[in-house]
């Protein structure tokens, strides 16, 4: 399916708003959207929300034989997927240009920065090493997939625990989580991507562009950095000429942003760890924010109550006088009492008509409901015959409670 | 006759005129049948999703979407199910906002948010002739009405009514901003005497076009004012009436 095109008026409005230093969601130029990190019930699974962009990351591991040229190093595998669920314009199973460039960027950010110690993933040199696989899925696309994916990736890797192994002679034993606690990956640092969008030939600069801002931008710059202010990757694309000053300014902004985001990630990881340790609630179901759709809500309507009294009087005047009711219990025989006067039984009549209906309407669900009522009626009748109860309308009303 | 009426069990929700009954798919909407409302009439009114898969069911309707059952006694009576969705399905007679994606010979292709683009003839504008073509560029916004909207067929739009007048339809100006909300919210905004619109109109003057396909075009005097309207309307989806009033009071105080 085709993506929704961007209309001319949106483009003009966005560019004008950027000139006036205003953004759609009321952010300042250098502000990030809200970042929310939530963890799944399993280890190594997390969802990162960057405003309305939402990314799911899952880490898994497997014992494989190492690459022949690196016999003592574990294997890292990264995979980013864009599905049409995220945006109608994205196609499944097709290696689009966007997907390839994002995958490459994620790989450069996480593998080439050597943030994961691959040597510690080795079990038997040249024979068995751990393969760590990171799958990142885009669940909703509202711009800046790069940053969301890089945050989700590094958080999932930090959160992941691999099974413990021991080697005795030739024998390799993999322990289940019950036998031995799984061990975390050894991660040296946390590289995080920060994206910049340039407008009007580089005159205006925005951090964390949304999907619509990405559509009208001229140039794009991604800086991956860790909290020690070490640049891991830098990539520029688009049709804008950047001056060195711009890049220096961007790297300074990135340094601030990365420090903030790293702090937030670490806090989220600590909270999750605490919840798991104390046996509290964790998992996605616990962290879903509560939002109520109000579009269908009806307002409470005002009712005119001025003439209610007259109306009520009128109804009372018109109504039939209430039938006389004996509320005294009458003791008929030992163990049998009667409360009130029994009215004429209408069940038999109903039963008869019901049979007619059952004959003409087959397989209707109402018939089943009647079946139930019939049984009840028969019960009541039988009890009456036995002389245990006197059949009265009280019984019909109270039947479910007796 | 009386006996027949007595025999039929009353539906558990009663049969009052004002009911907001929550329906789930495949639920048997017996009451709609009981009121003598033909399937064609009840079908698809104002985003209705009570679809008569009921030919097989002899009489009555089968609900295929979950939502609230709504009823309007006026005008012969109509039933519909108000449901929450974002994907638009073209309906004949609906007024929508389309984006021109291509100019193909004598028709324009418009993206309306449906599964297929709609077509719009260049003659379907007020006062348009073969000589006098409307000035439409790719990327322009057009407010029009569906003339043909059938299943498995390309929908066709027009920007004139049956008497050849534009009656508000046509090309939308170059300024202003377009954004999207859910279809449920659009129906609420388009309802007569909608409170949200009335409250907003007291803030400051602005222009507003609501398309049944969930698209809203807004234009106010400044960028800031336009952005405020956009954000309020987007937030209305999840705001209660009190929250909205508070937000608006804050805005009118700041202004």
Automatic annotation (TrEMBL), chain A:
<dbReference type="GO" id="GO:0005730">
    <property type="term" value="C:nucleolus"/>
</dbReference>
<keyword id="KW-0271">Exosome</keyword>
<dbReference type="GO" id="GO:0071038">
    <property type="term" value="P:TRAMP-dependent tRNA surveillance pathway"/>
</dbReference>
<dbReference type="GO" id="GO:0034473">
    <property type="term" value="P:U1 snRNA 3'-end processing"/>
</dbReference>
<feature type="region of interest" description="Disordered">
    <location>
        <begin position="345"/>
        <end position="368"/>
    </location>
</feature>
<protein>
    <recommendedName>
        <fullName>Exosome complex component RRP45</fullName>
    </recommendedName>
</protein>
<dbReference type="GO" id="GO:0000467">
    <property type="term" value="P:exonucleolytic trimming to generate mature 3'-end of 5.8S rRNA from tricistronic rRNA transcript (SSU-rRNA, 5.8S rRNA, LSU-rRNA)"/>
</dbReference>
<dbReference type="InterPro" id="IPR027408">
    <property type="entry name" value="PNPase/RNase_PH_dom_sf"/>
</dbReference>
<dbReference type="GO" id="GO:0071035">
    <property type="term" value="P:nuclear polyadenylation-dependent rRNA catabolic process"/>
</dbReference>
<dbReference type="GO" id="GO:0071028">
    <property type="term" value="P:nuclear mRNA surveillance"/>
</dbReference>
<dbReference type="GO" id="GO:0034476">
    <property type="term" value="P:U5 snRNA 3'-end processing"/>
</dbReference>
<dbReference type="InterPro" id="IPR033100">
    <property type="entry name" value="Rrp45"/>
</dbReference>
<dbReference type="InterPro" id="IPR015847">
    <property type="entry name" value="ExoRNase_PH_dom2"/>
</dbReference>
<comment type="similarity">
    <text>Belongs to the RNase PH family.</text>
</comment>
<keyword id="KW-0698">rRNA processing</keyword>
<dbReference type="InterPro" id="IPR050590">
    <property type="entry name" value="Exosome_comp_Rrp42_subfam"/>
</dbReference>
<feature type="domain" description="Exoribonuclease phosphorolytic">
    <location>
        <begin position="189"/>
        <end position="255"/>
    </location>
</feature>
<dbReference type="Pfam" id="PF01138">
    <property type="entry name" value="RNase_PH"/>
</dbReference>
<keyword id="KW-0539">Nucleus</keyword>
<dbReference type="GO" id="GO:0034475">
    <property type="term" value="P:U4 snRNA 3'-end processing"/>
</dbReference>
<feature type="domain" description="Exoribonuclease phosphorolytic">
    <location>
        <begin position="32"/>
        <end position="163"/>
    </location>
</feature>
<dbReference type="GO" id="GO:0000177">
    <property type="term" value="C:cytoplasmic exosome (RNase complex)"/>
</dbReference>
From TrEMBL, chain B:
<comment type="similarity">
    <text>Belongs to the RRP40 family.</text>
</comment>
<dbReference type="GO" id="GO:0000177">
    <property type="term" value="C:cytoplasmic exosome (RNase complex)"/>
</dbReference>
<dbReference type="GO" id="GO:0034475">
    <property type="term" value="P:U4 snRNA 3'-end processing"/>
</dbReference>
<keyword id="KW-0539">Nucleus</keyword>
<dbReference type="GO" id="GO:0010468">
    <property type="term" value="P:regulation of gene expression"/>
</dbReference>
<feature type="domain" description="K Homology">
    <location>
        <begin position="176"/>
        <end position="224"/>
    </location>
</feature>
<dbReference type="Pfam" id="PF21261">
    <property type="entry name" value="RRP40_N_mamm"/>
</dbReference>
<dbReference type="GO" id="GO:0071051">
    <property type="term" value="P:poly(A)-dependent snoRNA 3'-end processing"/>
</dbReference>
<dbReference type="InterPro" id="IPR026699">
    <property type="entry name" value="Exosome_RNA_bind1/RRP40/RRP4"/>
</dbReference>
<keyword id="KW-0698">rRNA processing</keyword>
<dbReference type="InterPro" id="IPR004088">
    <property type="entry name" value="KH_dom_type_1"/>
</dbReference>
<feature type="domain" description="Exosome complex component RRP40 N-terminal">
    <location>
        <begin position="20"/>
        <end position="84"/>
    </location>
</feature>
<protein>
    <recommendedName>
        <fullName>Exosome complex component RRP40</fullName>
    </recommendedName>
</protein>
<dbReference type="Pfam" id="PF15985">
    <property type="entry name" value="KH_6"/>
</dbReference>
<dbReference type="GO" id="GO:0000467">
    <property type="term" value="P:exonucleolytic trimming to generate mature 3'-end of 5.8S rRNA from tricistronic rRNA transcript (SSU-rRNA, 5.8S rRNA, LSU-rRNA)"/>
</dbReference>
<dbReference type="InterPro" id="IPR037319">
    <property type="entry name" value="Rrp40_S1"/>
</dbReference>
<dbReference type="GO" id="GO:0071038">
    <property type="term" value="P:TRAMP-dependent tRNA surveillance pathway"/>
</dbReference>
<dbReference type="InterPro" id="IPR048541">
    <property type="entry name" value="RRP40_N"/>
</dbReference>
<dbReference type="GO" id="GO:0005730">
    <property type="term" value="C:nucleolus"/>
</dbReference>
<keyword id="KW-0963">Cytoplasm</keyword>
<dbReference type="Pfam" id="PF21262">
    <property type="entry name" value="RRP40_S1"/>
</dbReference>
<keyword id="KW-0694">RNA-binding</keyword>
